[in-house]
Design brief:
Length: 315
């Protein structure tokens, strides 16, 4: 089932390792079980998008994301776009750590024709100047499943995390939310008059992440919906995040009544970050709220707690 349909019945998150919640989905319950195994400091308690591994005098950033046909991309979609998105989503996790990419490892289940995927991957690797270092291929009879591990090098220490937001900080985002949702809907409908590139070929904010990393108190990418990702950041930080809906940027042409959908849809891969009250970002960004002391709700929108769907979660 595609992400848009999933939204009709799910509350949660997507890739990455997320905080425990009441009424756990199978994904959240499995992750909670894995926390007992992930005792190494590099794992960050499985509450962040990346592992941060100290090796000698170097700090390595490691992340792994998977994609499944019919869940993360449309059946019949150009495999070259799928390859681009697989790379870009992993690089977005590195961007949220201010990391410089070192290389990637590919896990690939073979399709009837693999030529377009290879072409698209080559194009994306060249565009982002990232080498392919290896990986593995398999054959399976079901939906095609892809995985990619990205390795990066920290450009500053401490490496940003989700958990550093403090009361008094300001909340920022590097760009609009909702363009991927509109692109997905246009692609599904065969509408060629709407730009679908944000959904098909997202661009990770690598340069922005490196510029922001020395200044932020917390940072993560928006992959599974602004509302859900902001609530994750709040929970990890032991604080409440208050968002002002009037300040949240949306793409041109988004109907006002779709704003709530856009904030929950995800796949935008902008950077969500917090700054000390006297700091300004060194790159284009929109101030969208503030961090408050922890209250009954981790997230407020327009001063009110939210009910219903916040974003995307498997299972």
């Amino acid at each position: 089932m595609l992400r848009q349909a999933q939204h009709e019945r799910e509350l949660g998150v997507g890739g990455g390792w997320d905080q425990e919640v009441a009424g756990m989905t199978p994904e959240a319950a499995f992750i909670a079980a894995l926390r007992g195994l992930a005792s190494h400091p590099a794992a960050r308690g499985l509450v962040d998008d990346c592992a941060v591994l100290e090796v000698g005098g170097e700090t390595l950033i490691l992340t792994h994301d998977m994609m499944v046909e019919g869940v993360h991309w449309l059946a019949g979609q150009d495999p070259a776009d799928v390859a681009w998105k697989l790379l870009a989503t992993n690089l977005s996790d590195l961007a949220a750590k201010g990391a410089e990419p070192i290389g990637v490892l590919l896990g690939y289940s073979l399709a009837e024709d693999n030529t377009r995927f290879a072409e698209g991957l080559g194009e994306a690797l060249a565009h982002f100047a990232v080498p392919l270092l290896g990986g593995d291929t398999v054959s399976n009879p079901g939906a095609q499943t892809l995985g990619l591990t990205a390795l990066g090098r920290a450009t500053c220490r401490p490496v940003p995390s989700r958990s550093g937001a403090r009361p008094g900080d300001s909340v920022w985002i590097t760009g609009p939310v909702g363009a991927a949702m509109l692109g997905f809907e246009a692609l599904s409908a065969g509408n060629t008059s709407t730009d679908t590139s944000v959904y098909r070929r997202p661009v990770p904010r690598l340069a922005e992440g490196r510029a922001l990393a020395p200044l932020v108190t917390a940072m993560m990418d928006v992959s599974d919906g602004l509302l859900l990702d902001a609530s994750r950041m709040a929970a990890a930080s032991g604080a409440t995040v208050s968002l002002d809906p009037a300040l949240i940027p949306f793409p041109a042409g988004l109907p006002p009544q779709r704003a709530r959908d856009a904030m929950a849809w995800g796949d935008d891969y902008e950077l969500l970050f917090t700054l000390p009250p006297d700091a300004s970002p060194p790159c284009p960004a929109h101030r969208i709220g503030s961090v408050l002391p922890a209250g009954p709700a981790a997230l407020l929108l327009g001063g009110a707690p939210l009910s219903g769907q916040l974003g995307y979660e498997h299972g």
